[in-house]
From TrEMBL, chains A, B, C, D, E, F:
Organism whose genome encodes this protein: Aneurinibacillus migulanus
Annotated protein name in UniProt: Carboxymuconolactone decarboxylase
One Pfam family it belongs to: CMD
GO molecular function: peroxiredoxin activity
The organism's taxonomic lineage, starting at the top: Bacteria, Bacillati, Bacillota, Bacilli, Bacillales
Source organism superkingdom: Bacteria
All copies of domain Carboxymuconolactone decarboxylase-like, residue ranges: 34-117
Entry-linked Gene3D superfamilies: AhpD-like (1.20.1290.10)
Length: 130, 130, 130, 130, 130, 130
């Protein structure tokens, strides 16, 4: 596989995960810092996300958990949108935040929940929490 | 003790710590994600904060230190207000930030100090720093 | 639900996840620090792990990711054993570590892989990595 | 105040906190890396710990919380001994770990508890946990 | 060396690193919390940055790496400006972010890159990335 | 560039950095988890370390800083050896740890210094610290 093929494969995976605006945002990072942009798409979305051992939904479960655990709230909107796009339900996202409270601590979970609420509001999602 | 009693106990402790607006904010999280809201109040404020082994002031010393160390600046305003409400002096808060500089590093302490200043300004607090 | 029922529910879940030795280890923490032990079982394994929204396998995916991301390698053996006990395959564990390399950085992934290898060796697992 | 006076002040504070063996360990770091050793004693124990705004017991509450939150388990024994030397009770240490579970997550609290048990065993401490 | 001399030395180093506005910002922290401000200048910029073992450019490489690794994005603008002021090229900053992606994970690198872009825009820097 | 060429390039860079035993250790990880091993060498040592924008010594300054900041002490020996192999002096390593104390906190710096001392002892290095 050549670097061009890795990039192409990554771009296809990215387009399955992200809406137009978020693909555009990633491409914008590549315009500012081309080698970084290539690495994100060829390595991140190509070499990692495109592997068949997990489907994209399972990968987003892992990604969201890692982001919440490290307090990377600013990276959450992209991956919350992606998670919803590849089939994670709003209720599963809420459950994931709850499980993370025990492992990463309540501050990380509360910080995440604020962002989750904002993304759900943008998408007019009303989670079924009875 | 039933879950309702744990929740009730937590709510009472929360009301000793937080002003109306902050209680309302916690309740708002519970409206969005009821099980998470229950857990925060029954477990966090009920099972943990309500234990008599430490008073609320000592608990806020621990909470603020943990928040500063993990860089959870967005969770600081709630607990800075709570700390002041339960008897921590402004000067003790400043001293805590200073001690944390050595243990959590200067970036975490500087990030915290910016939030402390904002909260003190909101409450018209002029710390006695000679 | 009373605290006793929460504890009982947690203990049953724990026994589905952990082998005898690991259950014994958790109980040992409870002998040293009874309130902590109660909290771990009633809250951690009872209130969180026992919720039906995710099965135990999905919960271990989240737990392992959080542990790897925060570099909590000493807590990994318990949850690697649990993950294998509740149906995660060795190959899924290896894939999870690989995905985490991109999100938590290579040092965290390498540190985790060393522990994974040790646990696989203990259980005579030879992963199918072709 | 000169650097020599800062160092002298730090050394006196260190000797109030640490047993002979632990003072010796700090001095050993200073033999390997003299400027680092000077900084630890003059700045850490002199400029920070010697300030009168908190007593040494309150400072150890903050230090232990910061260490547990960042997962710095290897630095815990020195400060658990120091905490006990300056008047923190074993029961207060156990309570601190419990409070930290909610803020820093259970993995950090469990990792800390293992070290606490080891230090209590060394000192033949049997905490009063009913 | 007295504390006044340490402070004076730190102030001189700070003025080599930071523009007027950023020096003013640091002084503002000292007006709010004088002992903290003294510590930052006498210890941070005096005792540490002023040591001759590394030049200021090498020190900013280390500082930027530490800030990115701990996700302290809010402290980045000061040190990105300082790095550029003491001779780090825009291309070296971009390369540092890229190297950090592998060690601190992509979320930290992406978070940093957003701030780098903002600082470069403020200074009308167009990096030479071919 | 194909994946084989990326791997080959990475292996050559790795061999410039690491002694036989450490190269063997990396290869051992690749025997246990071939795709991870390929990624580490092709991406880590090939795509990142082999870029000409920084020399290997500058890269090790960044790597060591990131490892110390995240408390990844178990990954330090490999990179301390690598740093010394590619031209970092023992005194520069000690200075780096000292700078990190201010940014990552003293616990991380003390934890690192213990490992540095062990590696220097293994190599019979007596740093010139007068």
């Amino acid at each position: 596989m050549t670097n061009e093929e890795r990039y192409e494969r990554g771009l296809q995976t990215l387009q399955k995960m992200a809406g137009e605006e978020d693909v555009r945002m990633i491409e914008g990072m590549g315009e500012f810092h081309p080698d970084f942009g290539h690495m994100m798409i060829a390595f991140g979305f190509g070499d990692i996300y495109s592997r068949s051992a997990f489907d994209l939904k399972q990968r987003e479960v892992i990604t969201l958990t890692s982001l919440i655990t490290q307090g990377a709230t600013e990276q959450l909107p992209f991956h919350l949108h992606a998670a919803l796009n590849v089939g994670m339900s709003p209720e599963e996202i809420l459950e994931l935040v709850m499980h993370c409270a025990a492992y990463a601590g309540f501050p990380k979970a509360c910080g995440a929940l604020t962002v989750v609420k904002r993304v759900f509001d943008e998408r007019n999602i009303v989670p079924n929490t009875k």
